[in-house]
Amino acid sequence: MIGYLDLLLRLTIWFLLTADLSLANIVIGVSVALLLPRSYTSLAVLKDLLRILGEIIIAIPKAYFEAFEMMFRPHGREDIIMERAKPRRTPGLIFLDIFLITFTPKTIVLKYHEDGWYEVHRVRRRRGKREEARVKGGTG
């Protein structure tokens, strides 16, 4: 089934690029789509891809919420943290991970380290005086 989807995607791109649905162009498009090398994707990578796409859909309302939160309750604290990447990531999945982290207004990926870590800059709310005293006093 993946092969058919791959072929359909290639043909769609071909027709969008050429903007010609003549018989000769269809034959050339099918020939090019069949001659281009295929990339074989394992089922585990496909599952990871679908999971990440689901997380991106969930991140859209979260991004709006964070944007409004930053407008109405300013954030004055900044941190740079190291976030562990999931194992066995292809370059495409690493790109989607970085996109997912950077999509929300409070976080942005500064660097991807080859050993599997993301360097992430995040913005947080500054604690109020009452919260600071409670944390320091241990009554929290």
Architecture overview:
The protein is α+β, with helices and mostly antiparallel strands and 140 residues long. It has two domains: 2-35; 43-132, no CATH class. The chain is 59% helix and 16% strand. The protein is built from five helices and three strands. It has helices spanning 2-18, 23-35, 43-72, 91-103, 129-137; strands spanning 77-84, 107-113, 117-124. A three-stranded antiparallel β-sheet has the order 1-3-2, with helices on one face. The longest helix is centred in the middle third of the chain and has 30 residues, at 43-72. The chain is elongated and about 70 Å long. The termini are far apart.
Provide a count of the helices.
5
Give the tally of structural domains: 2
In spatial order, strands of the major sheet run 1-3-2
Strand proportion: 15-25%
- What is the helix fraction of residues, given as a range? 55-70%
Number of strands: 3
Helix/strand/pairing category: alpha+beta
Q: Using only CA atoms, what is the Rg?
A: 23 Å
Mean pLDDT value:
80
How would the global form be characterised?
A: elongated
The first-to-last residue Cα distance is 55 Å
Main beta sheet = 3 strands, antiparallel
Q: Which residues form runs of ≥5 with pLDDT under 50?
A: none
